[in-house]
Amino acid sequence: MTEHDATGGEETPTSAAESAGRDGQRFVLVLYAALTGVGAAAGLLTGTFVSGLEQPQFLFIVPFPATPLGFAAYGGLTLALVLGVPLSLVVYVSQRIDDGG
After folding, report:
1. So where does this one cross the membrane (predicted)?
2. Which residue has the higher pLDDT, 94 or 73?
3. Burial 78-99 (b: 16+ CB within 10 A, else e)
4. From CA 38, how far away is CA 49, in angstroms rounded?
5. What predicted TM-score, i.e. pTM, was given to this entire model?
6. Strand partners, 62
7. HEC states along 38-101?
C-alpha cells in the first residue's frame, strides 16, 4: 500500500510540496544540461564555419585545439562552469536556510 492509497487518494501538503520540489529540481537540471549543450553546439558551429580562429584556452590555462570539437568542448565546459558554480551555490544555501513558515 502506498502513501497515496493510505490517505484515500489525497496528497498531504508535505508530499505535494516535496513532489513540486523534485519537479523543480528536475526542470533546473534539464535546463542546465540543455544550455550546456547549446554552448557546445555553438562552439562546434563556430569551429566549423569560422576560419582563422586561434586556439581557445579554458580558464586561460588549458589549451584546446582549434578544431570544431575543441571549440565544442570549450563552449560546453565554459557554460557548464559559468552556470554550474552559481547553481551549486544556490543549492547549498537553499539546503541550509530554514523556510521559517
Report:
1. 29-51, 71-93
2. 73
3. bbbeeeeeeeeeeeeeeeeeee
4. 16
5. 0.75
6. 58
7. HHHHHHHHHHHHCCCCCCCEECCCEECCCCHHHHHHHHHHHHHHHHHHHHHHHHHHHHHCCCCC
What pLDDT does 85 receive?
A: 96
pLDDT tier, 23 (very low <50, low <70, confident <90, very high otherwise): confident
Q: Are 75 and 43 in contact (CB under 8 A)?
A: yes
- Residue type at 38? V
Residues in the chain, total: 101
Residue type, 91: V
Q: CA-CA distance, 23 to 18, in Å (whole number)? A: 9
Residue whose C-alpha cell is 580558464: 59
Cell matching residue 28:
533546473
